[in-house]
Amino acid sequence: MNMPEWIKPALGGAAAGAVALAVVGFAWGGWVTQGTAQTMVSQAAAEGRVSALVPHCVERASTDPEASVVLAELKAASNFNRRGVVEKAGWATPLGEERPNRALATACSTALADL
User: Fold this and answer.
1) 113 lies in some domain
2) Residue (of 82, 105, 83) closest to 93 by Cα position
3) Residues of 5-26 as b/e, b for ≥16 C-beta within 10 angstroms?
4) Is residue 101 part of a domain?
5) Residue 40 lies inside a defined structural domain of this protein
6) DSSP output for 8-43
7) Which structural domain, as residue segments, surrounds residue 67?
8) Would residue 26 count as lying in a domain?
């Protein structure tokens, strides 16, 4: 089978164009793989859950009978230890969960420190 002479350079140009398109798309075009997209979705869902539960955590802190003691301990604690104070008080444990949520405890301690 005889192929015209222009086929080889055309196929080479198409292959080079496809590679260049993929490189540009993934590097600057915002393309991501399925695994990266799933990671991004999981991260966004976790952040959304935390931001939705922070007001509940602050409300639990304000209605806790021992809130003044815990808040004083929170103010005295370093930034590194504040999360542990909120976890120990039980304010960062979402309803139906057995263990406190670390990200929620961090966000809640920041919100409580600002009060």
Assistant:
1) yes
2) 105
3) eeeeeeeeeeeeeeeeeeeeee
4) yes
5) no
6) HHHHHHHHHHHHHHHHHHHHTS----HHHHHHHHHH
7) 48-115
8) no
